[in-house]
Amino acid sequence: MEINKENKEIVNILQELLQKNYDAEAGYKQVMTKAKSMGLKEWLQAKARQRSEFATQLDVMIREYNATPADEGTILGTMHRAWIDFKTTLSADTDKALLEECIRGEEASVTEYENQLENVADYLPIKELLFAQMTSVKTALNAVERLEDIIG
Questions:
Q1: Residues 6+ apart with CB under 8 A from 126
Q2: pLDDT, position 91
Q3: Domains of the chain from N-terminus onward
């Protein structure tokens, strides 16, 4: 497939989501090391694996457009992980603070997917992939909000 202006726009969308998934995977791995609850650690580990799978799927799609996928996350993601380190250092309830940051991250992911879905409406395979990934992120967001209620 030749890279034309239209394809570049699609590749850019996929690259942005790829980087956001790298950020999410790194974030989940980071908070997993700080979590106190074993159940929470296991859940966070599963979410990190899921985001790695999302990144792999996006990587494959980018390569189908004859483009080279990004190999790392964003500066904003790095800054957010630094904020998590700072916040959990000051928090008396580390697990609650971690869950709050997971909620913020997942809300941002859902918004990003919703925005990008509008831009790929004419590209059915991409739209289906992004919709499936967004649905999984929404499920994770609902789960983390319930966990926060339980931990309380």
A1: 10, 13, 14, 61, 120
A2: 64
A3: 5-151 (1.20.1260.10)
